[in-house]
Amino acid sequence: MARPRMTKLDLTGQPALPFALTDTGGQIHRLEDYAGRPLLLVFHRHLA
Question: Residue ranges per domain, the chain?
């Protein structure tokens, strides 16, 4: 079966969608908590 074609979206300059992530200590971090401050997000694939 052929893979569906992916189209690129240029979202440069657009606000990010709100989201929250839980760290390994159980604390919830929301994107809005970091508004106006530089933030680097690193996502990696967890191989368990």
Answer: 18-48
Distance of CA 44 to the CA centre of its chain: 11
pLDDT digits over 18-46, tens only?
999 898 899 999 999 999 999 888 877 77
DSSP type of residue 14: S
Q: What is the pLDDT of residue 10?
A: 87
Q: What is the chain's alpha carbon radius of gyration, rounded to the nearest angstrom?
A: 15
The answer to whether the CB of 20 falls within 8 A of the CB of 31 is: yes
User: Residue 16: which residues within 8 A CB-CB, separation 6 or more?
Assistant: 31
